[in-house]
Amino acid sequence: KGQATSPTTTRGDVIVRGVSADERLAIGTAGQVLKVNSGANGLEYGAGGGLIQTVSTAKTNTFVTNSTSYTDVTGLNATITPTSSSNKILVLVNLVYGGHANLYGFGRLVRTISGGSATPISVGNADGGTRPQASLALQMTNNSNQEYKNKTASMSFLDSPNTTTSTEYKIQCHTNNSGRDVHINWPRNNDNGDYIGRYASS
């Protein structure tokens, strides 16, 4: 207040009040908004609220595993780079599966921040023994015609990765019995008939 000259130097600069005098707040970059800083004692430019970006993937081919430990569902992964460490990532999964009658299969969501290790997220709590921690139940009833059918498992999870580094999300699955396969996007029975479908997961 009362300064003889303006502190601004560039078109788009803003004059803000500092501790004891007016100061220059440099113009932000394209897409940024003016907001109060985390200390609630000044202004800054940064990412605005609302939907910032979307990333999607669709798996239209088939996959099968009889692994009794979690394995990647190939092609069912997506990578996003948050613009701010405060960004939240909404993950939506729709998985079409089939398999043997009396299948006990399990699926989980895994996050990998570039340079880090894979971390299962949105899974149930550990409960001792050999109980699998899972995000999705991939199970078929004990009826002989189950091998001709498919089911859908869906989930949503709001993640807070706290990073601005490239972050991958993927789906893994496994079965409790290597004699009972988990099929993705097709039933166990592969007859060439109008009752055997091919599906897409995302």
Please characterize this protein's 3D structure.
This protein is mainly β. The chain contains no helices and 13 strands. The strands form four sheets. Strands 6, 8, 9, 10 and 12 form a five-stranded antiparallel beta sheet that branches. The protein has a four-stranded antiparallel beta sheet with strand order 5-13-7-11, with no helix packed on it. A two-stranded antiparallel ribbon has the order 1-2. Strand 1 and strand 2 (22-25) form a beta hairpin. The protein is elongated. The mean pLDDT is 92.
The secondary structure category is mainly beta
Proportion in β-strands? 35-45%
Low-confidence stretches: none
The largest sheet is: 5 strands, antiparallel
> Helices and strands, in N-to-C order?
EEEEEEEEEEEEE
The gross shape turns out to be elongated
Relative helix content: under 10%
Count the E strands.
13
Report the mean per-residue pLDDT as an integer: 92
User: What distance lies between the first and last C-alpha atoms, to the nearest angstrom?
Assistant: 57 Å
Based on CA atoms alone, the radius of gyration comes out at: 25 Å
Total of helices: 0
For this entry, give a set of tags.
202 residues; mainly beta; five-stranded antiparallel β-sheet; four-stranded antiparallel β-sheet; 39% strand
